[in-house]
Design a protein that fits this description.
Shape: globular
Order of helices and strands: HHHHHHHH
Number of helices: 8
Largest sheet: none
Strand content: under 5%
Distance between the termini: 22 Å
Helix content: over 70%
Length: 258
């Protein structure tokens, strides 16, 4: 088996083991199994294809941390799907989400310490972040309101817009505020999913998070609109909510992931 396929395949095996563990300890329902395995298969296929396109022979140290985080996100996905059928342990759901969020900081640290930063790793990190926020929105939507789904959908709407409006594909200048806003989304959704504060406070926090996210995306779109008449750079773009790992300095640029 080529090295490029080993990492995603190991991730798939680990994901199945984690789902089986949830099945034994909690009696994971059919909806959870379908959502969890579907996520695991999609992750394996997309990650393998992206690695091939980027010319990655094997996953780097930071990518392995991100892959471990992605398997935890698969567990969150399974529990979220199960929550529509029956009650799931809030404490366990919260604990898994916290570990996934902590690893979000670890993979960037590992990338810098091992000098293995890359566009491939940054995109992988960003996609896992965006998906986790989306899943958390789905989890809290039944109690908070369907409007919360706008938080998780905003980035994917931006991607859809970029397919038909080439001027939105330009590389954005670095902006630390994007990282702050992304962290706010994750923390607010985590607190709401844990149900540790009253409903009025939860709604207020979610509204603030949505407002901050709208402002961040809006500012980037305004910048892109104003810069639309200048020549486009080579392929490889930054999406609002930008990747957390910088492009490599001494290595050739690598294509982003699906």
């Amino acid at each position: 088996m080529p090295p490029v396929r080993l990492g995603p395949t190991i991730g798939l095996i680990v994901q199945v083991v984690l789902l089986a563990t949830l099945g034994v300890t909690l009696g994971l329902g059919q909806a959870g199994w379908i959502a969890g395995t579907g996520y695991a298969l999609a992750l394996t296929v997309l990650l393998t294809r992206a690695a091939h396109r980027a010319g990655i022979a094997r996953l780097g140290p930071a990518d392995k941390v991100t892959l471990a985080r992605a398997t935890l996100v698969g567990c969150v996905t399974a529990l979220t799907a199960d929550s529509f059928i029956r009650a799931v342990p809030v404490a366990l759901f919260t604990a898994i989400t916290i570990v996934a969020l902590v690893l979000d900081a670890v993979d960037g640290l590992v990338a810098r310490r091992t000098h293995s930063t890359s566009g491939f790793g940054g995109r992988f990190d960003m996609e896992v972040d965006a998906y986790l926020i989306g899943v958390l929105c789905v989890y809290v939507a039944p109690s908070a309101g369907l409007w919360v789904l706008a938080i998780g959908a905003m980035r994917y709407v931006y991607v859809a817009v970029s397919w038909v409006m080439p001027w939105t594909r330009r590389r954005l200048p670095p902006r630390y505020w994007r990282k702050v806003v992304a962290a706010v989304q994750a923390i607010v959704l985590l607190v709401v999913s844990a149900d540790v504060v009253g409903e009025p406070w939860e709604t207020a926090a979610l509204l603030i998070a949505l407002a901050l996210l709208t402002e961040s995306f809006g500012r980037d779109l305004i910048w892109l609109w104003r810069a639309r008449r200048t020549p486009l750079p080579k392929p490889g773009v930054d999406i609002p909510g930008a990747a957390k790992r910088p492009e490599p300095v001494k290595k050739p640029a690598q294509a982003g992931r699906v």
